[in-house]
Task: structure prediction
Amino acid sequence: MKKPIHIVSATIVTVLLLSGCVTENGDRQTDMQLDRKVDSVLLLMTLDEKLGQLTLYTSDWDVTGPTIRPDYMDDIRSGKCGNIFNAHTVAYNKKLQRIAVEETRLGIPLMFGYDVIHGHKTIFPIPLAEACSWNLGLMKKSAKLAAKEAAASGLNWTFAPMVDISRDPRWGRVSEGNGEDTYLGACISEVRVHGFQGRDLSDPYTIAACIKHFAAYGAPVAGRDYNTVEMSEISLRQDYLLPYQKGIEAGAVTAMASFNDLFGVPATASKYLMTDILRDEWGFEGFVVSDYDGIDQLRDHGVAEDKQHAGELALTAGIDMDMQSAIFVDFPALSLEEGKVSMDDINAAVKRVLRVKFQLGLFDDPYRYFDESREAEIVFSEELMDHALQSALESVVLLKNEAENGRKILPLTAPKKIALIGPLADNQLDMLGSWHAAGDHTRVVTLLEGLQKKYTSTEISYARGCDFYAEERSGFSRALHLAKTSDVVILAIGENQEHSGEAASRSNIDIPGIQEELALALIETGTPVIVVIMAERPLTFPVLNEKASAILYAWHLGTRAGDALADVLSGACNPSGKLVMSIPENTGQIPVYYNSKSTGRPDDPSNKYTSKYLDVSNNPLYPFGYGLSYTIFEYGEVRLSDAIIGMNDTLEVSISVKNTGDYDGEEVVQLYVRDMVGSLTRPVKELRAFKKISVPRGEEHKLHFSLTREDLKFVGGDLEYIAEPGDFKVFIGPDSENLKEAGFTLKN
Ligand code: NOJ
Result:
């Protein structure tokens, strides 16, 4: 029966007013006010209504997991579902919100979640690519604009940022993260949360962020998605936790449990992760959502006997919201009777969910995200499209740029004839990348289009050449003919958008199919070949690397991909991206990462009995932090303010960087530290600071960094962060291998 909504809503408002919780002047709510509001609603709720608030179902729009619940609208109507994901647009979500607000007894508004990972409709580069910009302001702006567009489309919650550190490019989800380094990942986590949520969640241009996947999802054994994670607790805390913690400290109001198990307990059932660390150690006050079907999967993990048991484990561990398992909605009656869960457990979870709904302003106006004219104005607005270009420009990494006849191949200034070849050269869909939310591929500028706009007096001919996987070589002959009759070949090869992302692990990360064979045949023609690799993970391509004249690592750059690439290729933009994940020489080296330990037998080429391979070096093909520019940056010496510092002192570190090349350029100056002797073994270097600077041609910049004891800390044997006295080295340079160094001593 349809309920008289105005009376019901009035009930809530009356309770709020009586309890003195409604601020008349619209001031931001204090914690106490919030708690009183939440309590006043909780008082009105039946057990079933409470469980409905702990339930999140997908709509039938996008399905990002194994199950769907086709009758989700009835579930909303009956109060069994208080939150929806994978539904968007003002028109549709307004319709669903109406059901919740006007047809349920209490009229509690829905939250609408979605994977707004790198843009909503206007798509920015995949997060791994954008991280290569090392531009925190740019990444914050991407999150802010994605939130603006998503909020205008009826959403108020994104399942982002994903901040899983990963050292394994076989894992398809490296695309969503920020690479292999903990410090950089933590900085990015913080700014992305600020970007999504802004200063005030009740601002209808912001959305709730979700730190995921808690925890250590990026370290599955053998790089296989959803697999078990095996690591020491020291490594968990030293290498993996910081990005989650920084996101929580930045104010993220939600977090998502990961699928994997860790220390023998699936994260979804881990009280240690969800309560002891997240809430007790870090003070998290928001709610934790399970991942898709994660609660039911406790049965497959082999820790739950049945659904009821799974629900008990998850709820008592500290999971507040059930994504798609449909277990929280009906398990507790029996569990309460048997004393396996308490009403306090349920109330605590409901309060956390309601709290976020209040923070979003949904109780003030459940329709605040549903303004059609705002949607029309913001989606694909100039502001978003301009930013998509800027972000793409800063994400591209130049790996190789050889000279031919005394001149570097790139930038490509005035070619008469370009042969553009490859399955990604005139391709809209794959530019969007994985997790492209509601991205519209018809708005994508392809590389072909970008080049045609940029090189107006050049003849550009195009051939696809081959496909990603098919063994069909009939396209080779036209491609080779074009190569032979052109000044230069631009070859766009790599992965399509399904080769990476969730459930897209690969045991072999070579360039898929016969694309490399095509590349080598084109190089054989003698025409210079510029290879543009588009992918969502580091791929392995040692032979091609040796033979190609120039290589740009271009990822999947989003809606403005073609414009950005044309600007970089032509020199309108000087590339400045630096890798945030090492590119391995071969798959057998994985995991290969810059901050490894020395071992007791450090690699020594003249000594067989040292830590190395017989068939490949220990070094990656391209190291963390690497990326070329069209100009040349010369680094001076590392200067330190003191040779010895005390525990409370600050060490001033400086270096000069001069642009001695022919172009204005941007450089990411990286500072690493090594603790020479510790109570535990320490990595050979660890990133501790960086600055992205813009240096006009011929100019020199002096950079200053300050290091304190905080920067020298690590997780000690008793799991505390400690700085130990002793000798340290500071390294500064353009990447993690080419470094200038100086030493100092930290004294007690
Ligand atoms: C499963 C993924 O692991 C998670 O990242 C995503 O947010 C949910 N599905 C919802 O789509």
Residues 633-747 form a domain with the Immunoglobulin-like fold (CATH 2.60.40.10). The chain has a mean pLDDT of 95. The pocket of 1-deoxynojirimycin is lined by residues 64-65, 115, 159, 212, 291-292, 502 (CB under 6 Å).
